[in-house]
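agent: user wants the structure for Flagellar basal body rod protein FlgB from Alkalimarinus alittae. delegating to structure tool.
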Amino acid sequence: MSISFNNALGIHEQALNLRVKRAEVLANNLANADTPGFKARDLDFKAALNNSLSQSGSAGSMAMAQTNSKHLSTSNDASESLLYRNPTQPSIDGNTVDTQQETAAYMKNAMDYQASFQFLNSKFKGLTSAIRGD
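agent: tool returned. relaying tokens verbatim.
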């Protein structure tokens, strides 16, 4: 009998990958905090996770399929969920990055990443003990 990792690991694998992509976006915002005209962006995690689950078929819904080369692409790209952040206090130079808000979002994302990692780690420990027969 084979083990399906998609069923065994649940949504934690996709969540971990999306947390990494969101950390990259937030770090980019912080790196460009002093760049004139830079617009802060953020990843809509919930929409990206739902899109990822529907593409992999794990959400119980049917995934889209491209049946003709002229059809629109059905790629699983997180950049589709990338949105511009509404500034609370836009600066005179047009930069919309609020460093305190970005730092808080980055730290929250880091804690969520750690939680997803611990859930995924516990799943692997459970699979290892099941294989060993402990």
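agent: one observation worth passing along. DSSP finds four helices and two strands in the chain.
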